[in-house]
Amino acid sequence: MKEHEQSTKTESAYRLLRRDILATRLKPGAPMKLSALRDRYEIGWTPLREALSRLEAEGLVTAFSNRGFAVAPVSREALEDLTRARGIVEIPLLLEAIESGGSAWESAVVTAHYRLSRCRLSVERAAESEIDEWDDKHAAFHAALISAARSNWLLRFQATIADQLRRHHRFLSLAPAMRAAEGRSEGYEEAVAALRDAMAIEHHTELMEAALDRNAARAQVLMAEHIGL
What we know:
Blueprint: H1 2-22, E1 31-32, H2 34-41, H3 45-57, E2 61-64, E3 68-71, H4 76-100, H5 103-117, H6 128-145, H7 152-183, H8 188-199, H9 201-212, H10 216-227
Antiparallel strand pairs: 1-3, 2-3
Helix pairs in contact: 1-3, 4-7, 4-10, 5-6, 5-9, 7-8, 9-10
């Protein structure tokens, strides 16, 4: 029973920390002191250490010899690298899904698109919970698009890349644009317009329609544009 309880606490710690790292509530590069984490999440030392080890293996946490843990950093260079990696991995998965997907796949794509379309997000005034919801629905839509692909290894790589891109975009693109919009600082109009364009449902609708029409050539072009290649 104790072993089961420990496992449950570790899983809870892992999910809570992972959620806040991806949402950048735990800032990239920030130290992860166990005492502060224990107070913040009300979880004991052992579950926290085990959760941090799992997150280190996923590349979301960095461990330093004799200095503890920190949230993995982000950078523009890494964002560009991740974008290229996404194209290399996700486009072949999309083409494979278009080729092999059946009616269940089609239904999953349509459902995920509908849920994403119901997220009304204002870049200038979005609450953190609204951004979280959009992030989740957006990730679910792209996961649905490639869910009929047959390559389990590529799907694993895609999931890892998607997680890293999520926090890079949130910290390097979304957060600065929202601050600029709030303060009406120089360049805010361009930043907000770029984010609105990236979040527009129209792009996702075109991608869905190309996939469901089995138009692989158009889907490939649209995905490359969406990724930013």
